[in-house]
Amino acid sequence: MIRPATFARHVPFAAALSLAALALAGCQTAAPTADAGAQASAEGRVVAIDRDPWAYDGNATMQVDTASGPVTVEIPARLNLCPAPGVGAFPDIEVGDRVRASGEAGADGHITVCNGAGHALQQLD
């Protein structure tokens, strides 16, 4: 059991600790996200690629390390249905390559490159 005098002495410390945690949480850096359905772009170095979802007609993903944080770019399995310039070169992109991707922002912050006006995938080096 906590004695009242001891409890009162620890309350200010707990409050200060909570405020410090909230302040630090506000300092985290994350990539800016666009509204779902809006045009979004990401440029940076590819740090990971997962093409396995293509095996079941899902979207392949690549993590792009941008100046404002990591962004996941999705490329649909059916490339023949995606007229975006450069999307057909996705199988040749490797980890370490620099890319610029423009597409539709998803609710989860991903960018899907496929068939919208202004969608494109470009390997920069």
From TrEMBL:
The protein here is known as DUF5666 domain-containing protein
Taxonomy of the source species: Bacteria, Pseudomonadati, Pseudomonadota, Gammaproteobacteria, Lysobacterales
Q: Which residues form the signal peptide?
A: 1-30
Q: List UniProt keywords, sorted A-Z.
A: Signal
- UniProt xrefs under PROSITE patterns: PROKAR_LIPOPROTEIN
> Which superkingdom is the protein from?
Bacteria
Q: Which organism is it from?
A: Novilysobacter selenitireducens
